[in-house]
Write a structure and sequence with these properties.
globular; about 150 residues; single chain; 5 helices; 4 strands; alpha/beta; Rossmann fold; about 50% helix
Length: about 150
């Protein structure tokens, strides 16, 4: 397995709904630190919204310097079909990047029916999606390095 001190992690985070994504980042980074990954091993790329995440994920993956990419965003259902378009295309784009570049893209772009659901997932101690993203990234890095 790749040593934690050698890992490089990219976090791509939407600036839209920053009250959610900043908390996801905070819990994610704290979890990485507990597992021996330093802040200097983590690069954060901020994009305007969730639909912009896949392009930056592709650019980051193309560099072949990151062991995992984490995507953070929050998409809240409104009265139009826009919610589904953004959520589906963001997920599809991230999956395409993961498969093409063979790097795990941990998808924690929260598609919710109200903003409070996203805030809870980003701030609660149990089942925090930022924590889950870090742990999933570490597990995927381990699995891939053992293949």
């Amino acid at each position: 397995m790749k040593k934690t001190g050698k890992m490089r992690i990219a976090i791509i985070s939407s600036s839209f709904r920053a009250e959610v994504t900043e908390n996801l980042e905070k819990y994610c980074i704290a979890t990485f630190k507990k597992k021996g990954v330093t802040r200097s091993q983590i690069d954060i790329f901020r994009v305007p919204g969730s639909l912009e995440i896949p392009l930056i994920a592709r650019k980051v993956a193309k560099k072949k310097t990151y062991d995992a990419i984490i995507a953070f965003g929050a998409i809240v259902k409104g009265k139009t079909y826009h919610f589904e378009q953004i959520a589906n295309e963001c997920a599809r784009g991230c999956m395409e990047v993961s498969l093409k570049y063979e790097v795990p893209v941990i998808f924690e772009v929260l598609a919710v029916y109200n903003i409070q659901d996203a805030i809870e997932r980003a701030t609660r101690k149990e089942e925090n999606k930022g924590v889950e993203a870090a742990l999933t990234a570490l597990e995927m890095i381990k699995i891939i390095s053992n293949i």
